Amino acid sequence: MTRWITVITLTRSFEAETVKGRLESEGIKVFIKNSAINQIYPLDNKILGGLEVQVRADDVVAAVDILREIGYRIKRHETNSILHYIDTHSKVIPFIGVLQVEYRILILASIPALMIALAIVLLAV
Question: Which of helix, strand or coil describes residue 39?
Answer without folding.
Answer: helix
